[in-house]
Amino acid sequence: MLPAGHILNTPVTSNAIRPSACPGLLRIVQALDGGICRIKLNGGAISAAQADAVADAAAQFAGGVIEATNRANLQIRGIGQQSTELIDRLLAAGLGPRTAAGDDVRNLMLSPAAGIDRDMHLDTRALAESMLDSLQHRSRFSELSAKFAVQLDGGEALAMLEHHHDLWLSAFEREGETLLAFGLAGCPTDRAVGAVPVESGQALVIAVLELFLDLARPEQTRMRHVLDEIPMLAFLEQLRTRLPIKALRAWRRGPAAADLHIGVHRQNTSGQVYVGAVPALGRLDPSMLRGAAELARHFGDATLRFTPWQSLLLPNIREADADAVVDGLAQLGLLSRSSEHLAHLIACTGSTGCGKSLADTKRDARHLAALLPSALKVHLSGCQRSCAAAHCAPVTLLAVSPGHYDLYFRDATLPGFGALHARNLTIEAAATLLAGHARSPLDA
């Protein structure tokens, strides 16, 4: 997997770190429960030694809360007066950007199973490394929003295909050649707008980002803002003046398999598996992270991979050791069986840490999990911003007051959370309604 970061090789200056509401490694953002530091992991990967460094920093300089994010990164919460010491500790572990201005633009998401997935058409890791290098070292790209995001998909069965990206690329094979289909302001399940050979993948990313910056006004921070004014065909016409693009007529990315981020799954090498586990509601404590790192050292290749499902994988485990790893993860409090209800629930920080949240979503999610008769995929959001989920979940509970939620069911024909089903429900009432749908496609 990609190295999880590099020690900063340029001085940190006030000009290099832009004002933003998005936390980064070098930008601590304040919340009700203290400062938040976001550690962007290249390709979602982190070494066992680096995981130990994150655990130590969270325990020593913050409140001991570590979060797995829906972009396969890590966050430390509850940072107090020792933010400088925390940043220095993480930089020394090699978890920083390559340049101070590069921290915001490292938003490149891969499959957590890059290089080991049995269904992949392309090992994306080398190409991703080149793309990250360009994103961080081309000074103009520091103008991009901290939310501007790119996805590189190698055709893996384990892939998050529902997160919208400003640019996405997806590998496929045609007549013996591996190509990269791509699209703008959407996700790989959308219709592609063109394709390039794999060797042109990095050039495509550079050309799209430079064209975006040429066309966007300062307030147009995302690709969709530009495409609201400039037709897609007009954007592509200008893009073709920068590099050749193949037309695509009927290509569609196949669906990803469900729940491959949890449990034991075979890799593309005989006799090896990866083991996925979910920290309940995306939260780990230092002992959990240290314990997972030790399991990775003992049974795997001393690396961990975080996922967009707010979970983690231990790759390159001998098949004979899989049960021991599952048992070890369970002893740490991590969920590695899909039958466990909490493994399928997601919730934002909630009112204990966020001033915008109308309910204690973490507490309410645990209560809901105890009431549900079967495992359902439910998202609890404290407000309309939907910070915990970058995609529309099958079921969403949107807080309206402490302990009370509006209930939505996903509907592809409707924007936002989907179709409103009931208002102002208690958790008990929501559980009763959801139990009546337990045998429906909602949990698929």
From TrEMBL:
InterPro entries: Cbl_synth_CobG-like (IPR012798), NIR_SIR_4Fe-4S (IPR051329), NiRdtase/SiRdtase_haem-b_fer (IPR005117), Nit/Sulf_reduc_fer-like_dom_sf (IPR036136), NO2/SO3_Rdtase_4Fe4S_dom (IPR006067), NO2/SO3_Rdtase_4Fe4S_sf (IPR045854). One of its GO terms (molecular function) is heme binding. It comes from the Bacteria. Residues 36-92, 265-331 form the Nitrite/Sulfite reductase ferredoxin-like domain. Residues 102-245 form the Nitrite/sulphite reductase 4Fe-4S domain. It is an enzyme of class 1 (oxidoreductase). The keyword Lyase does not apply. This is Nitrite and sulfite reductase 4Fe-4S region.
